[in-house]
Specification:
The complex is a heterotrimer. By secondary structure, chain A is of the alpha/beta class. Chain A has helices at 5-18, 40-58, 70-79, 93-100, 177-185, 194-201, 214-222, 234-241, 269-279, 282-291, 305-310, 322-340; strands at residues 33-39, 61-67, 88-92, 106-107, 125-126, 129-141, 166-169, 207-211, 228-232, 247-249, 254-264, 317-318. Chain A contains 12 helices and 12 strands. Chain C is mainly α. Chain C has helices at residues 4-30, 48-55, 57-90, 94-109, 112-123, 128-135, 147-171, 175-183, 188-216, 220-225, 233-244, 247-280, and strands at 33-34, 41-42. In chain C, strand 1 (33-34) and strand 2 (41-42) form a beta hairpin. In chain C, helix 1 (4-30) packs across helix 12, helix 3 runs antiparallel to helix 4 and helix 4 crosses helix 7. Classes of the chains: A alpha/beta, B alpha+beta, C mainly alpha.
């Protein structure tokens, strides 16, 4: 989700080519070593120091293979089916669901062997997936540029004062969450998003653009080209690091998005399980929320102070069935494009 | 091309050029050119490439803006006008026919640009095609024509607008030698019958002599000599003109006694009494222009001759061309009528003398 | 037969085979059926993907929008590019020629993403142009994040291709033809209209074909400057991959767009050949 446009293009191309020409990977190494298929930003910014500690504790070396996007990761995983060169795959929950529909790819989570499994918060697990963190999908805005300096609800975005000032995600971004939020606001649901698309028509005038590139939208927000960007909480930290003061609010309904790990079928499931158990451990989750500014999935770890500010209030959060989204997203996109396109 | 009718007759215009100069950077393409062409005359600018003759022609057409000077047709100043309003018709070396138009459309182009109505234009086009004897080619495209035919189209296209002056840039350069003379004569007849003032650029002296009322020999941006072709041929003023006119021997001479309009000159043991055409420029140094046929070959020891021997001999049809070397080391080319005989033998002893009345003094 | 030349060709053949194989694979996939939830496909061969795409209003509206936008972009490129090419071919001012060429080469060499962002800085809601309008007390205009922005970005991208292609054609028209026409009484404008323009038509058509092909395959500028509102073929193909993940369907869509693009280009190509032939019957 946080990948730039170039990588998205590359992964799209790769999906077409590699998805069909199955590339055989080299045989897995025999020593005690696991390989992660992971986004480079996640590895460098978060997991690398934790993995060193993991190796020290368990004697299991950690190697990596880079995926440019979740989709490219899926293509790679399918291409190396049976003889994977990676053992643990970092991906978005929705993509993991897609992969799970192919029984040859993912190993079931060995729940008995994962001492920390029981501590994962609701919605963060599936039979083949363990969340590593979560983030809310909400409204990131420039307090200096919005009327009253404050936004408290989704409905405000439809109102005056935001004309040509909103950066909203295109349907392919965040797997259609913008359509779903709009649907819930308009009395629809995941089973009936038409009211949501009707409602989005009414925000056309306020929408400066529908973004398919995170950095582009962030740049526009930083430059004041727009005053609002509807996106995930990681944007807050990225912009703060660049010295841009933004605030985030996750009003009701606030979709929660999980990203995490899966274990690939390939003979090293046991070693991989040990790694997964570390990911969801209290200690790692504490680092994840404090360093990475993401939501911790271990119920014994409180969200870091800065992160707690952007979290939805109790009862405001919503989650969606990823499988349903996967099935219907293309149809929603088509409807959306016809309603919103010029 | 001989028959004319009222439709295409041009009035002849007087061309006057005064003090014209054009520099490209530090290089003078033409400097201080002055000439006058009487109405209906044909003048040839003759000279080697780079002498400025093309620049001069393009200045008249308007494609070159001179730095100084004046160009006028019948007293009307041309330089202030853009090319399309000068009423000059230029024939380009490569003919420059419009490849996307038929012959008739090419010929009619100028009339169209001048806003001549169709009803008037069509007979004029037909007349121009008839004059240049290409009526049957009217519907062809230029790509389907021979070089000679293309030239006729270009000529018809130029004449049909009834220009004040016709400008021809190396008009026969692309034609076969055999065709060239025929077309030259045809063009000359047409030009005379139409009475159109014409300026031709060429580097071919024979062409200049064949066509012209006036020849201007150009060298390094200047007019070296201007006059009727016979005068230029017989009495070149400078060594450059003499050489360009095909004079074989340019002999540096000492000036001797003057006798009326004649002067005695000598080069080594060779002497001649020559007619002075001008007194200017022949005071200090002088060169004697001697055509090969002005070198007479006689028997050795004949009075008035200088002893020499035949150094080289070659046949030139009815005449023979020799290279003779005098005993004091002077080399001369001499031609002699063979009178049906064989060539003189190499190395044979002869006497030579110059026919003074056929020689002329030129400046260096 | 000597083997050596073929050995030397081997790398080229290998590279070409790789491209061809990728293309063939892609065509094969378009006739298969997606295994739900996966990127895997299976037989038997079917036209279902093609009929689904043809029946889909999205594909039809995309095809129309793509052809319309590509046509508009090509037209604008030609209108802007022709004078530039003419200046390059004919201007006697070396400075002017260098300036134009420099501008085009800079465009050529700067990356697409860089240029897209540069256009955003100029055309954005708070971009240079709108700031100027505000300073003059005028209302702002929406130039970016819509078709206008995409058209501007793509036309700028296409200009060097168009100009350099046309330039070669213009340089082949002898200057003496233009002089000849002026000598016969045509003003500069009429020389252009009656001589230069007709003679440049084959070159113009090939430059326009190149631009049209470039515009048809535009991806980056619609993606970055279109604000999610401009759906050209490449963007819709890409978006469909991301949302549908039905590779056979997407492959069929891409194949149909390709056929459409090739048909449009073939049309232009025949036009080019026809004019070229007409003129060639004329020139030696």
């Amino acid at each position: 989700m946080r990948k730039n446009i170039g990588l998205r293009i590359a992964s799209g191309l790769f999906a077409v080519l590699a998805g069909t020409a199955l590339l055989a990977g080299p045989a897995a190494a025999q020593e005690k070593k696991i390989t992660l298929l992971i986004w480079s930003s996640t590895w460098n910014g978060l997991i690398k120091p934790l993995a060193e500690q993991f190796t020290k504790d368990t004697g299991i070396a950690v190697d990596i293979e880079v995926e440019a996007s979740s989709m490219e990761g899926l293509v790679k995983v399918q291409a190396m089916r049976g003889k994977p060169t990676a053992d643990v795959w970092f991906t978005a929950q929705g993509v993991a669901e897609r992969a799970a529909s192919d029984p040859g790819l993912l190993a079931p989570m060995p729940v008995d062997k994962l001492s920390n499994w029981k501590d994962i918060i609701p919605g963060g697990t599936s039979p083949t997936f363990a969340a590593a963190y979560y983030y809310p999908f909400g409204i990131v805005y420039r307090p200096d540029l919005v009327p009253g300096g404050k936004i408290t609800s989704w409905e405000e975005l439809w109102g005056p004062g935001f004309e040509n000032k909103l950066a909203l995600p295109a349907p392919s971004f965040f797997s259609g969450r913008m359509i779903l939020v709009s649907a819930l606001l308009a009395g629809g649901s995941i089973d009936n998003v038409d009211p949501g698309i009707e409602k989005l028509k009414k925000v056309k005038k306020n929408a400066a653009f529908w973004f398919t590139s995170d950095p582009q939208a962030r740049k526009a927000l930083a430059q004041g080209e727009v005053s609002v960007m509807v996106t995930s909480s990681s944007t807050v930290k990225t912009l703060a690091d660049q010295g841009v003061t933004v605030k985030m609010v996750s009003p009701k309904p606030a979709p929660i998005i999980f990203e995490g790990v899966t274990i690939l079928k390939g003979g090293k499931e046991d070693l991989a399980a040990q790694f997964v158990n570390y990911v969801i451990s209290q200690q790692w989750q504490k680092t994840i929320t404090e360093v990475w500014n993401m939501g911790p999935v271990n119920k014994n770890v409180p969200p870091a102070g800065k992160f707690a500010d952007v979290l939805p209030k109790d009862g405001d959060a919503v989650t969606f069935n990823e499988t349903t989204i996967n099935e219907r997203l293309a149809g929603w996109t088509e409807k959306f494009n016809q309603a919103i396109g010029q | 091309m001989s028959a004319t009718s009222g439709a295409t007759i041009s009035r002849g215009c007087r061309l006057e050029i005064e003090g014209l100069a054009k520099n490209y950077g530090d290089v003078a393409a033409i400097s201080d050119v002055t000439l006058t062409v009487p109405p209906g005359a044909l003048i040839t600018l003759l000279g080697p490439s780079g002498c400025g003759k093309t620049t001069l022609m393009r200045s008249i057409a308007g494609f070159v803006s001179p730095d100084r000077g004046r160009i006028a047709l019948d007293g009307r100043d041309l330089l202030a006008l853009p090319p399309e309003r000068r009423s000059t018709a230029m024939l380009f070396q490569n003919y420059s026919l419009f490849p996307h138009m038929t012959v008739a459309a090419n010929v009619g182009f100028g009339l169209r640009m001048h806003g001549v109505r169709r009803a008037e234009a069509e007979p004029r086009i037909a007349e121009a095609l008839r004059l240049t004897r290409i009526a049957e080619l009217a519907d062809r495209h230029p790509g389907q024509l021979s070089g000679g035919q293309q030239q006729r189209v270009a000529l018809a296209r130029a004449l049909v607008t009834r220009p004040d002056i016709l400008l021809l840039d190396e008009p026969f350069g692309a034609l076969d030698q055999s065709l060239r003379e025929e077309v030259q004569i045809e063009l000359r007849k047409l030009q005379q019958s139409l009475g159109i003032t014409t300026l031709v650029v060429t580097h071919d002296q024979l062409e200049a002599l064949t066509l012209s009322d006036l020849v201007a020999v150009m060298n390094a941006g200047r007019i070296e000599q201007i006059g009727p072709p016979i005068e230029i041929y017989d009495r070149p003023n400078t060594a450059f003109v003499a050489k360009f006119m095909g004079v074989e021997n340019l002999v540096p001479v000492r000036l001797g006694a003057r006798d009326g309009d004649r002067m005695r000159v000598a080069a080594g043991s060779l002497e001649a009494l020559v007619r002075l055409h001008t007194t200017a420029g022949v005071v200090d140094s002088a060169i004697l222009a001697v055509r090969a046929d002005a070198v007479e070959i006689a028997s050795p020891g004949e009075p008035g001759t200088v002893a020499a021997r035949i150094a080289f001999a070659t046949n030139r049809g009815s005449s023979a061309l020799y290279e003779v070397t005098t005993d004091d080391g002077q080399n001369l080319q001499a031609s002699e009528d063979r009178r049906g005989g064989t060539l003189r033998a190499l190395g044979s002893r002869v006497g030579v003398r110059l026919r003074g009345e056929a020689c002329c003094l030129v400046t260096g | 037969m000597p083997l050596r030349p073929y050995l030397l060709l081997l790398p080229a053949i290998a590279a070409f085979s790789l491209f061809a194989a990728a293309f063939v694979t892609f065509m094969v996939v378009s006739f298969q059926t997606a295994t739900p939830g996966t990127v895997l496909t299976h037989g038997p061969a079917t036209f279902a993907n093609y009929s689904a795409v043809i029946a889909s209003p999205l594909a039809r509206s995309t095809a129309l929008a793509t052809l319309r936008l590509a046509g508009l972009m090509t037209l604008l490129t030609a209108l802007l590019g022709y004078p530039l090419a003419y200046v390059l071919a004919r201007s006697t001012s070396r400075l002017l020629r260098r300036l134009v060429l420099f501008g085009l080469i800079v465009t050529f060499l700067s990356g697409g993403v860089t240029r897209a962002y540069a256009w955003l800085i100029i055309l954005g809601n708070r971009g240079l142009l709108n700031q100027m309008l505000v300073a003059l007390g005028l209302p702002t205009v929406r130039l970016a994040y819509n078709e206008t922005g995409v058209v501007i970005g793509v036309v700028h991208f296409l200009l060097p291709f168009f100009v350099l292609t046309l330039l070669a054609a213009l340089k082949n028209i002898p200057l003496s033809l233009e002089e000849s026409a002026r000598n016969l009484g045509a003003s500069r404008w009429r020389v252009f209209w009656h001589v230069v323009l007709p003679l440049s038509i084959p070159g113009l058509v090939s430059a326009a074909s190149l631009s049209f092909a470039g515009a048809l395959s535009a991806f980056l500028f619609p993606e970055l400057l279109g604000g999610g509102r401009v759906h050209m073929a490449s963007n819709v193909i890409f978006e469909t991959i991301l949302t549908d993940f039905n590779l056979p369907r997407v492959a069929a869509m891409a194949a149909l767009f390709l056929v459409l693009a090739l048909a449009a280009l073939a049309l232009l190509g025949s036009l080019e050949r026809r004019t070229a032939k007409l003129w060639a019957g004329a020139t030696r």
